[in-house]
Structures are given as structure tokens and as C-alpha cells.
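DATA SHEET
Item: assembly model
Revision: 1
Owner: S.N.
Input lines:
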Amino acid sequence: MKILQKTNLEAWKKVNGLGADRTIELLKKKGLTGRGGACFLTGLKWEFTRKAKSDEKFVICNADEGEPGTFKDKLILENNPENVIEGILIASYCIDSKQAYIYLRGEYHYLKERLEKTIKKVLEDTKSEIKVDVIEGAGAYICGDETAIIASIENRRGYPHFKPPYPPQKGLFGKPTVINNVETLANVPLAIVDKDWGDNLRLFSLSGDVAKPGVYEIEIGTKLGEIAKIAGAKDIKALYFGASGGCIPYNSNFVVSADHVCKEDAMLGACSLIFVSKKRSILDLAINIAQFFKHESCGKCTPCREGNVHVLRLLEKIKLGEANEKDLALLEKLSIVIRDTALCGLGQSCTNHVLTALKYFRKDFK
Amino acid sequence: MIKLKINDREVKAKEGEYIIDVAERNGIEIPHFCYNERLERIGACRLCVVEIKGMDKLQASCCTEVREGMEINTPSPRVLEARRMNMQLLLANHSLNCTICKENLMCKLQKYASELTIEDTPFENTQRKDEIDDSSVSIRRDNNKCILCEQCIRVCNDIQTVYAIGMVNRGVNTRIMPNFDHTMEESSCINCGQCVVACPSGALTEKSSIQDVIDVLNSDKHLIVQTAPSVRATLGELFGMPAGRHVTGKMVEALRQIGFDKVFDTDLGADITIVEEAHEFVERVKSNKNLPMITTCCPAWIKFGEQFYYEELNKNMSTCRSPQAIIASLVKTYYAKKIGKNPKDIILVDIMPCTAKKYEILRPEFKGEADFVLTTVELAKLLKQLNVDFLDLPESKFDEPLGVSTGAGDIFGHTGGVMEAALRTAADWLSGKELKKIDYTKIRGMDEIKEAELEIGGKKLRICVVHTMGAARRLLEQIKKGKSPYHFIEIMACYGGCIGGGGQPPPHNKETLAKRVKALIHVDEEKKIRKSHKNPAVIKLYKGYLGKPGSERAHRLLHTKYSKKSYV
């Protein structure tokens, strides 16, 4: 896998020659986009943060990989933490930050010691004075949201905050902050030194009703049929993009890209594909996912906190055969209100799965 | 200036303003629970969502800044549908026992449910069944009515820096609780009741003593009532009068009608506080010891001081009792003796703007003095219950011998008032003259920290007035570090002083509070005597009973002491 190729600080050396502005230009030209799901140009994010005036700035590596069916960052942290840390140093250098944090998912605790050892080594090798600290999450899904990460690192309750202001203007401790996903940062040194590097190559987490679940490096734009073949998926009915991205009906000719998925009212997000076989009921899946969101809603905003309780209740009512058309209509309306009015990105996407399931698999709800 | 459209109407706004504020200025009230002009914006309740042309999702108007050319629709069908559904979600998880709720008819949840014509919720009831926390003597906490708008937390933590409550658990199990599962009584709560004022849904209410008072009204005890300075400036609002009218005469008459034998004025207590405090201050200035001196009329601030700053700042706190505690002490000693009654046969009810007064009367130092405290809001309820036709009442005067007060006593009810009153007396004493200029306008107004430098009797004095405990903490830290430039500091826990107290009617916005201040200043200006030490009742009391300011008897009856308080 390309993402696991170690750049051995070659990029760091090159960046020190190029200087910050030219490094940012290079990243923009290479077209590196964020791997967390929003696909924002990384170079542009850094440029905003670089230009923000402040005595202090921060870099945060988002390693709170919590989306169901997503396990690609784990692979990178296990096998190529060097590149991630090199990416962090480059980001820090480019925005002029002296302190970086890796916000590590609580369940990835076993990686902490190794990460810290690698940090120590990389810092020694680079003689860099940038501090990189690992901070562990406590197991909350919401802390994958960048504003909630900020709150958590600040020792506050892991609650999301409305945007704007965006972290590049006002982030950690109120200072300009770059927050990048693990995979994004791992790509930074590669994008800088590797001539053949392209933004299209992604890590896909493939799971569900497949023979060979795992992390695969696949190009954006690949047909779904090919991906299914890689994973050994047969008799597939639906495809889920994590829990929050929603689902689409399986079609082997479907071209997997953010735009295409978006056209189907779903979200590609961090390239987590969960294959669902024809034997399964979408209603059962919906209940499973709704349980997850009820459990993981942080509780800050009304629609997500209270709404997810009733999404689950309505789904269970349908399952018991006690629901009527009115209940189905209420479920749909509620899902739209949660999507339209929730505070954070996670809240706004937590009913995508219901809305897409009702669109494509409505008969499973009868 | 930028131009934008709200509901097809062109309006102007400044850059950086938020939609909800611009709308309100233009007469459009967007329903909201978590938004409060004085608190950090959090955008949590999602009731204030609006539709903005060109934007996919609905936006919370409390935390979305206006932009040039923005086209906003506040009641579009999509907005109303979402707003109503979010209300229905809140109601599905609420007690819905409005008729027997203390917040009934004052409740924002009720108001918006009515305005949005919500007559039913399509959602199954998910009402939690949490235990009611009745441990505090001032505040009742019923989590079953909490809608998690976090106003109480922000008031307690950000404005007051008391940190008595916080959030636990997550999602639908989220609760607002005192630290580590303790009760309100065990927490660092200072009983100020600002959370009660902020709570829009009846989850936090004052602990009621209405029934206790009704019970004693029917007893054969000698019944005394005293009314705090600020109550007269706010009580009328609870009978539909506009903010800013004082109703002293009607209030006294009402209390007489419901059966009190004597109606005394806490303002006289304020005048006595000033005489003692000014005496204390002049002594401290002369000896240059224990400065700055800090006023101690506010029981919430006293508890705050005892919890967080006792060791360092005990010596800075004035030892004078609050006006309430002075009248209470005089009623059960001086007055009881005068009318030849056993103090045990006298019941004293305090009408106060304050939930912390309920705590103050139970302090061991004041045991056996005042019997019950009713807040302004409780008094209005009591009068309504006893069928008093308040608006049509004639005006009546306070009773002798504890019923004559000066303008100085009246202004105790707002921020800066105690300081101004104290200066009117202290300046006369320090200069040895009868000064004509007695309006200290620099320390009036709603700024949280107000300071002034004065020259009195050839001495330069720096004074400071502060309200809200967060602002006060900044000054207290200064003193702790030995860096306070001040000689005299007034501290009030509530925003605006007592007119913004935890027992005062809502709303507590700047506009309403400013009107209440004006009402008190008006009462002051109407008075012939505006200096406490010129109060004939005060002079008579000292002459016939107390001796001199600072005398042994004065110390016993009019002063108090403090002790270290612990909390979780």
C-alpha cells in the first residue's frame, strides 16, 4: 500500500528548504484533500491558519476514528506512524505552531505507548522543538467532531460548538488551529516527495457481508462491482457508508465517488463501505444504527438528543408490526427535522440512514 | 452598516451582529430557550432556527451572524414545522404538570407551546422520573422539567464563577446536577437564585414559604413584616404594571390588609447599616487598617466569601449585618421590649428580592430572629391567593417605630446604592461638613465594575462597585495578591443588584433592570432626607437605645461574624 511507504523524513527536509508558503502552494497544487469526509483542500486549510494572526497556534491530529465500519486510521497508526508524525511536524512548521496533539480514540489505547515512542524518535531525528502530545478520548463518538475534540482537549465536556468561527480562525484555547485526519497527515509527506502521488487513492474500510473484510487502497472512481469483488461480497442488496452516510441500493456499475454518492442522497464520508446481503432486513439495520445514535448523541441539542430516542422507538414499533402509515410519515418528518436543525455535522447526518432507507427500501418497513 | 431582509422587510445591522438580536430590535421575537443576551451563545435548543436563502440547512439565529444581502425567513412553513417538532420533542420529555407547577403562567416553555399552537405531541412520552432535590433552603431542583438549555450552568459557572452545577451523562440521559452526585445543599451553591431566574421551564424554582406564612397569618401571634428596598420597585410588574413604577404605598396597604400587625421598612435597616458601616469605614480609613473594606449586605456574596476567600479576606469584610438582619434583630429585642411582648410571640416575615435571604435567616448567628422569607414573586402569589385587589388599593405608610427611612436606604436595592448611601454619610463625617453634593453618578449604571476616585476631607479615596460574583472575583483576587487600589468596595451577587435578585420577576434583561433602577432613584429623589445619619428614626434609636455607632450594644445587635464554609 502506498500510504504505508515511509518517507523517512525526506519530506520534512524538503519542506525546510521550501519554506512554509511554498509548501502550502505545493499541497494545494497536488490537490490533497481531507480524509475525514469533508474533502476540504488541506493546503487551503493550512493557509487560512497560517494567515490568522495569533501569538500561539495549534495542530491537532484527529485519531478519534469512531464511525461504525471505519478502521483505516488504525492501520496507518499501527504500521506507519512515522509518516503521520512527519505530517504533523510539517503542518506545525507551515502554520508556525509549537504544540501539536494527537487525539487518540479511547479504544486505541494500546497504540499510545508506541505512538509516544515514535514521536520521541522522530523529534530526536529532526531536532525539532515542536511538542507533540497524545491525548486519549474517553469513548465518545461525538469527539470525532473537530469542535468537540477541541473542547475535550481543553478539559471541557466533549461538546460540539457551532461554526463559524472555524478552527483556523478560533480553535483550541481560542487560537487558530489546524485539525487533520490521520490519513490526511500520513499523505502529507507522500504528496510532498512522491512524484506519482495522486489524491485519488484512498483507504477503504470494507466490511459487512463480505468474505474478506479489511482495509484496501482503492482509487476513487472505481466501480462498485470491482470493490465488491475485492472484498468477496456476493448477493448484495445495499451499501452503507458507515452509519452516518446512509445507504444506496447495490449496483455493480455504480461509480464510487463523493459526488456520485451525494447524488443518491447519501454521503461517502471516510470511505467506509458496509455491504449488506439480500438476506438482511434493512429495518433491522436501521434499528441497530438508531441504537448507536441514541447511545452516542452527546445531548447538547434538542433534535439529536430527544429525536434519536423517538427514531428508535418508531423503528421498533414498525418492527413489532404496530405501526401505521402515520408513524412512518412521522419517522420521515422527524428524520428531516433532525437533519435540518441539529447543531453539529454528526447530528445533521445521524438520520441519513433512515431517510435513504425509506427512499430505497421502503418495503422493508411495512 | 449592512443591509439585509428579514421576512421581506429591509433592515439595517452592524457587522458581527447575530440574526436573533437584529430581529428583536425590529420587533420580531424568535422563540428561544438557550439564548440569553448576557450568556455565551451555545445554539443548543434549536428553537430559534430560521431559513436563510441559499443555505441548505436551517440555521440557529442566536449564533448566525448577519451578512450583507442576507434574506431571512423567520416563520417559513419549513421553519415552523421544525420549530414545532423540536418543541414537541421537548414536551415529550417534560412533566407537563403545568397547573401544579410553580412556574405556571410565567413559564417560557408554556408560552412558546401556546404560541406555536402545540396541543399535542405525536411522540410517546419519555418522561424521566428523577428525584426532586429539595435539600437547599432556597432552590428546588426538579430535573423532570429540565430542557437542558444550560442557562443555569452558564449563569452559575460563567457569570457567578460558583460552579455548583454541571452536566453528567450524555445523550438523552444528560442531566444538570451538583458536582459528584451531591445535593444542592452540599454543593458550592451560594443561594443567589440567578439560575432560578434563568430557568425557562420550571426545573429550578425558589423554595416556597407561602403556605408557612398563610399558616401564621391565622395564628394569634403578633405579626410583623419588613420589606426590602427593591421589592417596591418590582412588585407592580407582577400585577401587570410596566417596569419602573414603585408601589410602596400599595404594598404596605396590602400587607396590612392581609393581617400583619405592623409593616416595617427594611430601608430603615439600611440606614442603620450605613451608620454602622460608615462609622466602621471612617475608623478603618483613619487607622489605615483592613482596607479595602467590603460591604456585606448580600448574603450570597457572604457565602461566596466564606467558601472561597475566608482566610484571606475575612478581615476585609465589614462586620455590619445586612439591613434585613438589623431589622430582625431590633424587632426581637428593642421592639419586643418596647411593646412588652415575649420575642417568641412575635413572628417576623421578610419580603425580600432574594432567594439567599432564605438561607441568611437560618444562619446560626441570626437564629430566632426572622421567621420566614418571601420573595417578591411569592408575595405577589400570596396577595393573589388572599384576593387582594392590588391595583385598586389605597396608599399606606410604614409603621412606627421602624418605618421611617431616607433616600439613602431606598437606593440599597440597586448596584452602587449601598456605596452611594455610605459615601453620603462617610463624606460628611470625614470632612466634618454637611455636604450638598450627594449624587454619586459615577457609580450608577449597569457596568459590572464601576470605580471612582473621591477627595473627602483632604483624603483621596478610591472606591469600586461590582455586581455578579464573576466580576467580584476579579477584585477579590486583586485584594488577595495585595494589589487592590481601593479603599471601599461594594459587592452584590446579582446582576443589577437586588432589583435583579433571584426572587424578582422575570425578565432580567438590561432594559427592565435599568427601569427598576430608575424607580428607586425616583423614590430617593422624592425624599426630603437623603442621608442615613439624618434619619430621625435612626437618631432616636441611637439616642434612646443603641448609644453611639460602634457601641457595645450596637455591636451585639447590628454586627455579625463570619466563618469558614466548606463545600463539595
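QC remark: Chain A has a mean pLDDT of 97.
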